[in-house]
Write a structure and sequence with these properties.
The protein contains three helices and eight strands. It is α+β, with helices and mostly antiparallel strands.
Amino acid sequence: MLLETTYGKPKNYQKGKSLVGRPFSIFKIFKMRGSSSPRFFIESTNLAVDYHKELQSDLDAAMIEIRRNGIIVHINVKLQIFEWMIPYYQLVLYKTNEYFSIHAHGRFLQFTLDKSHSEHLKFINKLVFEKESHMSQYHFIDGR
């Protein structure tokens, strides 16, 4: 679910909050050592956020917030702000040496891993752990 949350736009958070769940408690956030990511710089996307690689600036970045049942990707493109809410059961993550990408709903968002690679790697590991711990409470037919 992609919402434009630029200042002055009407917001419909209730549907999104039910999709990804409430934020963690302060105690859980301290135990996790934070629930949001450092800034990821956008490399490419097929989301409807009016992003153009040739017009890229330092404002084109995203932050990921971990929630109980999914994640919220806060995307800043030029002067617009978007929130992409993804439940864990639809979230697919890919990481190579140069890029990290998030796929869901037939859409993707690809980030560059460059300067603060170690901070990004810590957050990616935390995200994978939270997804696996959430998905382990369900029993799948294929034996996973």
